[in-house]
Write a structure and sequence with these properties.
By secondary structure, this protein is an alpha+beta fold. The protein is 29% helix and 23% strand.
Length: 757
């Protein structure tokens, strides 16, 4: 009998449509795992965990938090818990199962009447392990930490690996160990406390030390960690909790806290208060509210695709990517493209660096900076899914860093506005690997990033979409408009005008593909040409006359996007094309040799959508797509998104399949393959979501276009969000839409259904 546990479970018949559809994608394993590569993900947007079992029946929890930043600016795990049951009901059991229940955001482990449930409360900073057992057993929880010694940055150590931000340069500070506090009678507590910080070094190296007093150090005296406790548990030492006696009901609770500018003593006291407050909420009530959060989440939107095994894989991939974002993007900082909160690893020898092949749990290739070109792909699809709460950390990171970006511009260039280099610390400055150690100038040493600033135009485009969809005037007035004003002011004041009064962007670059010597790069021009009319169309009460005048003047002063001819059917690598070549859009007015594999000229399709189905110049854009030098279908490749915008159905379908089947080597195969990033490669899944959504629906102003790139052999049930607080729900089969429900109904007149190819 499992009365308490069973009474909390929600029968699938009681789920709303979105939750019911998503439950079809639940993942069940029927054998115990081996190690961290056999984990499943759970999370509440701020706290996350990789959960796995081992052959001896131990339950393992690798716990992460979105704001666990060390003194070196590295995002790390909180720690690992090993939970032992004695006797263990899962070892040797023929009916063992471990299920990721997506509809509940929980993991259930079962063997007969023995059931464990692991979940991270959607509404509180708490994680719970509950068990109902057929026969009484004891629980033992062991805290396992790997940051146990002071590690020098100048000698090999596991913590030094993955610090891309510093380019292998020795740091003036060491990596400090975690602290395990003296155990209480019924609980264990540990933390990491930053007694030093790399932050002042970054300011000094980048010639901004005069600003240090204005912008408090976000790392120094930051304390993060957790406490574990549970009914009937007692501490046997500082690392171990045990049941005082066997019981059929077992429970372990974990509570986490991060504080800035604090002390370990204050942090410990505040954590104790927080844990007590959460504990006073009955677990039954907390679970019911947790289920309610996930039910509301899944019913905001859905895309359920059928018709072939590929269609099923695409449908499941869309669900899994959105689930991982829900697990990791409601905290103080946005999810990282290179692993999110779900990186794994194992303990390493103290004198060995972590590497791609052999690493501790804190390691991630490409480090802890945010790369706009990658990270944006995680957040574009959340607009149509209606997940504004998941979007906010992405926007807030740029908004919080805006004053520093403006001050940096004034000091460096003696004019107004703000610019953000593509790779940056979450608080705003370029990382030192790109800026360069002991760089005597303010020009970045890295040619990959030196002039790479157009990503903020894309953030403006995302914010404009968010406003269009939500009609949230407060968001527009206090977030979108100030941010857009600063970015456009930079473009207005930083670049000179030529003899014709047109802006001349030089020296510049066209993404990472054409560096140093690009002139008037297409992504920047397309971005400005896209966002400026939309800014000018905002309600007058949200903007000032001065802002509108500046935006109008910059729009007037934009040079045309460069056109040219193909060479042997492709974009000319340098120089001019064939006299009889096909006219296409160029990556810049002038450009040199390629250095990376992105197609800047196609930013006119995605993200900026100057060209597309139902718009002028579609054939020109399609010819440009056909002439691209770098087809790229996974990781941060945009073949799928751009094909969908241009109505190239077969190509979009093929790429969507590739994106959502780019499985990793871990048992949970939706921890996407590293590709050019790290595991899970969340920009791969994000790009897949964008592709699938744009195949099904594209919005332009008030027009809602259905099936612009939808294949006739795929069937779908869908609900997506659209501008002006609209939702569109329906069924598509054999190229026909049925069961169409548009809310509010007045928006039905704006629906345009494209013939399916």
């Amino acid at each position: 009998m499992l009365p308490l546990f069973a009474s909390c479970l929600c029968a699938l018949g009681g789920l709303d449509t979105g939750s019911r559809l998503v439950s079809e994608n639940d993942v069940t394993w029927t054998t115990l795992g081996e190690n961290e590569n056999d984990s499943m993900p759970i999370g509440n947007g701020d706290i996350a965990a990789n959960v796995w079992t081992e052959q001896n029946g131990d339950l393992m929890l690798l716990v992460a938090k979105s704001d666990a930043w060390t003194e070196t600016g590295k995002i790390v795990k909180l720690g690992r818990l090993r939970i032992k049951l004695s006797p263990n009901p899962f070892v040797g059991a023929s009916n063992f199962s471990q299920t990721l229940k997506l509809e509940d955001g929980a993991i259930e482990i079962q063997s007969g009447e023995n059931v464990l449930r692991v979940w991270i409360d959607a509404n509180h900073p708490a994680m719970h392990v509950e068990g109902h057992l057929a026969i009484p057993a004891t629980l033992q929880a062991n805290l396992e930490l790997w940051r146990t010694n002071v590690d020098s940055s100048s000698s090999p150590s596991p913590q030094r690996g993955g610090l891309f931000e510093f380019g292998g340069h020795p740091l003036p500070i060491d990596f400090e160990p975690d602290t395990v506090l003296p155990a209480g009678a019924d609980g264990l507590t540990w933390c990491h406390y930053n007694i030093v910080s790399i932050y002042p070094t970054v300011f000094q190296q980048e010639h901004l030390e005069s600003l240090l007093s204005k912008y408090p150090d976000p790392y120094l005296h930051r304390c993060f960690g957790a406490t574990i406790t549970g009914p009937g548990l007692v501490a046997s030492d500082d690392h171990t909790l045990k049941s005082s006696s066997p019981d059929k009901y077992i429970r372990l609770d974990l509570y986490t806290l991060t504080e800035e500018n604090t002390s370990p003593q204050t942090w410990e006291s505040d954590l104790k208060t927080l844990a007590g407050k959460i504990h006073r909420v009955s677990l039954r009530k907390a679970w019911a509210e947790h289920q309610q959060w996930w039910d509301v989440f899944w019913n905001r939107s859905w895309i359920h695709v059928e018709g072939s095994s590929d269609a099923t894989n695409v449908s499941q991939g869309h669900v899994m990517q959105r689930y991982m974002m829900a697990c990791s993007s409601r905290g103080p900082q946005p999810a990282k493209f290179n692993g999110g909160l779900f990186t794994v690893g194992h303990d390493m020898p103290e004198n060995k660096d972590s590497s791609n092949e052999n690493h501790n749990p804190d390691f991630r290739a490409w480090g802890s900076s945010y790369w706009n070109q990658n990270n944006r792909l995680l957040y574009w699809p959340l607009i149509a899914t209606g997940d504004e709460d998941l979007l906010q950390p992405w926007y807030q990171m740029y908004l919080d860093a805006l004053p520093l970006a403006e001050d940096r511009t004034r000091l460096y260039y003696h004019h107004g506005g703000a610019a953000y280099v593509e790779t940056m610390y979450y608080w705003g400055l370029p990382n030192l690997n790109d800026f360069g150690w002991d760089n005597p100038t303010n020009v970045l040493v890295s040619e990959w990033m030196r002039y790479h600033i157009q990503g903020t135009l894309e953030v403006i485009a995302q914010m404009l979409d968010t406003y269009d969809y939500t009609q949230d005037a407060d968001f527009a007035q206090h977030k979108l408009v100030p941010f857009a004003t600063a970015i456009v002011d930079y473009y207005d004041q930083h670049w000179p005008r030529d003899a014709d009064g047109k802006i001349r962007m030089s020296p510049s670059q066209s993404l990472e593909t054409y560096q140093r010597d690009a002139v008037n790069p297409t992504p920047d021009l397309a971005g400005l040409e896209s966002v400026l009319p939309r800014l000018l169309a905002l309600p007058y009460k949200l903007t000032s006359q001065e802002q509108r005048d500046t935006w109008s003047n910059v729009l007037r002063d934009l040079p045309p996007i460069a056109m040219g001819k193909t060479s042997h059917g492709k974009l000319p690598r340098t120089g001019t094309g064939d006299a009889d070549g096909t006219t296409i859009i160029m990556p810049a007015e002038k450009y040199g040799h390629t250095r990376n594999a992105e197609n800047p000229q196609l930013y006119v399709a995605f993200p900026y959508r100057l060209y597309g189905v139902g718009k002028p110049g579609l054939d020109l854009a399609r010819d440009t797509y056909a002439a691209r030098l770098f087809p790229f279908v996974t990781c941060w490749g945009q073949d799928g998104t751009q094909a969908a915008v241009l109505g190239l159905t077969a190509r979009a379908q093929s790429v969507a399949i590739s994106e959502f089947t780019d499985y990793g080597d871990e048992r949970f195969r939706w921890f996407w393959k590293a590709g050019g990033d790290w595991i899970p490669d969340l920009d791969d899944g994000g790009s897949g979501m964008i592709t699938l959504q744009l195949m099904l629906m594209q919005c332009d102003g008030k027009r809602i276009m259905l099936l612009p790139a939808w294949p006739s052999d795929w069937t779908a049930d869908f609900k997506l969000n659209a501008p002006y607080q609209t939702t569109v729900e329906g069924h598509v089969e054999n190229g026909h839409v049925s069961k169409l429900k548009v809310t509010p109904s007045s928006r039905t007149k704006d629906i345009v259904i494209q013939p399916v190819q």
